[in-house]
Design goal:
This protein is mainly alpha-helical. It starts with 10 loop residues before the first helix and ends in a 5-residue tail after the last strand. The chain is 56% helix and 9% strand.
């Protein structure tokens, strides 16, 4: 930290890390001390000085775990002096925690440190020493988990998660790297490495975080067929060259895959809880707010039926939501999104979660201004509208603007759709906003 940096954190990544892991705003004034600068290192020193010992211990262990995992994921050789430093940091963090916690809470620390051990044991497998038939079998096992994670992450809308996804992403990155190494280690896999499926779903998706926009754009046309083709290619190897021979799995592999499985189960449980919470808590509140603000009696007005879809892996659960809406002219709106003043409404509901000073809100305003009733718009026309509204975007190239548009409209991690809390698809089976590859944006704003 002598140079003012903290590990490989950018300002944004450091802000996200501390906010998501500990609910800490690293740039809060309470962490301002008599330091010569507000560098990332000094912000961290301020947090250590201000927060209690328990929090500081957790932060140290998390940072050490993040650092070691990053080195393992990149398959870098860790020098002995770095290993000693990692061990020292872990001992300090654990000591701070155990000094503050009562007996019986040791699993909190154990959970933080176990993941690194699992990844380390998994990485210790010597793939070069394996026979070809053993590599085929191992590749088949690893790919089954790789496919399950991709389907889970995309199909379940896990872009909304604020906990647990970090672990799954680390496991995913290590899993992918080991698969690439196996495929590159033997000429038997040359046809797989040169296949369209490999270039579509293995090479581009280096992390779950960077794949959201990528998956949204080409899921149906490229990713889904490639997933199936890749699975069949590996199955053919297993059937004809390996004769479906089963080998005993290395203990490191077994424990690693068990950890991945637990994370995926945690994701599904989380999503199920969110779904149940919506029906039990959020929906009644929406209806109550409608009644209070409009003076409208639910027994007399029209009941409109909508669908809410939650996808997990290959399964689709469909549930009906009964909502009642009142419109100013007494007739239901023919648009999903309407505007009154500076406020947007989705199916009559005021969209409260969006922030008007954020890029995603401004980009959507530009889209709505050009297509209030929906339709399709070229990148060229939408870019011109955005630049006329956002002076800070005027120097960007067309390619940069296209990515900017996709990120702020359809990205389920940070875009308008996420913050507006709008479902994946509408009643007509189409998404509200979708990207027309190489052309522009489709705004599906007409109901029915």
């Amino acid at each position: 930290m002598r140079g003012g940096y903290v590990l490989d954190f950018s300002d944004r990544r450091m802000t996200e890390f501390f906010n998501e892991e500990f609910g800490i705003n690293v740039y809060d004034e309470k962490y301002d001390f008599d330091f010569p600068s507000k560098s990332k290192a000094n912000r961290l020193r301020g947090i250590w000085l201000k927060e209690d010992v328990l929090v500081v211990g957790q932060i140290i262990l998390s940072l050490v775990d993040y650092y070691e995992t990053s080195l393992l994921v990149e398959n870098n050789e860790i020098p002995q002096n770095t290993k000693d430093l990692i061990q020292k940091g872990r001992e300090i963090g654990a000591r701070l925690l155990f000094n503050e916690m009562t007996k019986g809470n040791e699993p909190i620390v154990k959970a933080i440190t176990d993941k690194t051990a699992l990844i380390k044991n998994f990485n210790s497998i010597d793939y070069k020493a394996l026979k070809t038939n053993e590599k085929i079998y191992l590749l088949k096992v690893l790919y089954s988990y790789y496919e399950a994670i991709i389907r889970t992450y995309y199909g379940s809308g896990l872009f909304f998660l604020n906990s647990g996804i970090d672990d799954l992403n680390d496991y995913f990155k290590v899993l992918r790297k080991r698969m690439i190494e196996i495929i590159a280690s033997d000429d038997t896999f040359l046809d797989i490495k040169n296949s369209h499926a490999y270039t579509q779903i293995i090479e581009p998706i280096t992390s779950l975080y960077v794949s959201a926009e990528f998956l949204d754009v080409i899921w149906d046309d490229a990713v889904l067929p490639s997933i199936i083709n890749m699975r069949e290619d590996i199955a053919d190897k297993d059937l004809f060259e390996n004769q479906s021979e089963i080998h005993k799995a290395d203990i490191g592999l077994t424990f690693f895959l068990e950890a991945v499985k637990r994370e995926m189960e945690k994701m599904k449980k989380y999503m199920d809880q969110k779904t149940k919470s919506f029906y039990a808590n959020d929906l009644p509140k929406y209806k109550e707010n409608f009644e209070k603000t409009s003076g409208w009696n639910t027994k007399k007005d029209e009941v409109i039926k909508h669908e809410h879809k939650h996808l997990f892996e290959n399964s689709i659960q469909e549930k009906d939501i009964v909502l009642n809406h009142k419109f100013e002219d007494g007739k239901p709106s023919t648009n999903y999104i309407t505007k009154k003043g500076d406020d947007f409404y989705y199916k009559g509901l005021h969209i409260l979660a969006t922030k008007k000073n954020n890029d995603y809100y401004k980009v959507f305003c530009a889209l709505y201004a050009k297509l209030p009733d929906g339709g399709e718009i070229s990148y060229k026309d939408l870019i011109a509208e955005i630049k006329s509204r956002m002076s800070d975007q005027r120097n960007k190239t067309d390619d940069e603007m296209q990515k900017f548009i996709q990120r702020n409209l359809t990205d389920r991690g940070n875009g308008f759709m996420r913050y507006a809390n709008i479902p994946e698809t509408e009643d007509n089976g189409k998404p509200l906003i979708s990207i027309i590859r190489g052309s522009g944006v489709a705004f599906n704003n007409k109901t029915g």
